[in-house]
What does this fold into?
Amino acid sequence: MSAYIPENKKKVTALRLREMKATGEKIAMLTAYDYTTAGIIDAAGIDVILVGDSASNVMLGHQTTLPITLDEMTVFAGAVARAAGRALVVCDMPFGTYQVSREEAIRNAVKIIQKTGVDAVKLEGGQNIAETVRGIVDCGIPVMGHLGLTPQSINAFGTYAVRAREQAEAERLVADAHALEAAGCFAIVLEKIPAVLTARVVKELSIPVIGIGGGEADGQVLVIDDMLGKNPDFKPKFVRRYADLHSVMTDAVGAYVTDVKNTAFPSADERY
It folds into this structure.
């Protein structure tokens, strides 16, 4: 049994997250991409489920998040939304669905909400997408922002190294965070930036700040496959492994293969 099961079973909303920041209650967030996993983590007490475009990597085998399409994201997001009874469900808008124009971004955000039943969408970028964020919010769709290391810009960055170490980039990030809050974002993810910069943004903003590789914030998010230890070769500093599912699954499959080869499965009790 989980050590933490929330007493409050009411649906988590964007407003609830702001209340959590105000009272100092930390926000727990994980990714999920399928119905079964989403149901498990929702029941275990997760506050926010992100249907991340990281599905491009962990579900589809791409090297970056760039190839995943809107139609592919809606399949994953719909499955997660159908399983989540309590958690707030956020869907990443994939690369190319909001960068071309404000109007196209609004249409795609509406499509995601209508087709999947998720509660909110997430966009990467700062002042450059502020008006787009405002347009989506004006349609009644909650928007989560994402600053720091923004994986959809990996070709421009050229590296997954920590961002905003230099003063100029740090100041731009703070300005971007304020711009996103002013545009109507209900929360912001800060990825792979110095902890001292995260602390500054947390202090200056009234909306929740969710960290991933950014030190302490109003909450934390991890890719579920990383924290469950499915890929033993992926060991970034900011990931804490809470299980070793790679070994568990490998041992289980190996035992099954052995039993099938030795005709130990199915047994007499497992036949009709």
